[in-house]
């Protein structure tokens, strides 16, 4: 019997997938948040400006 090679790459790994169920109102709120994310806070800006530990 010949084995098939598993596809690799983004979206092909079942562990990369997340399923969740939203009702209509929750779905609209989620979509609105994706379309209009909150402005970054100073704390987030500071965090993003730091060098990653593995970049030493």
From TrEMBL:
Positions of the UniProt region annotated as Disordered: 33-56
Organism per entry: Sphingomonas sediminicola
Name assigned to this protein: DUF1778 domain-containing protein
Origin: domain of life: Bacteria
Pfam families assigned to the protein according to its UniProt record, in alphabetical order: TacA1
InterPro entries: TacA_1-like
Compositionally biased intervals (Basic and acidic residues): 43-56
Keywords: Toxin-antitoxin system
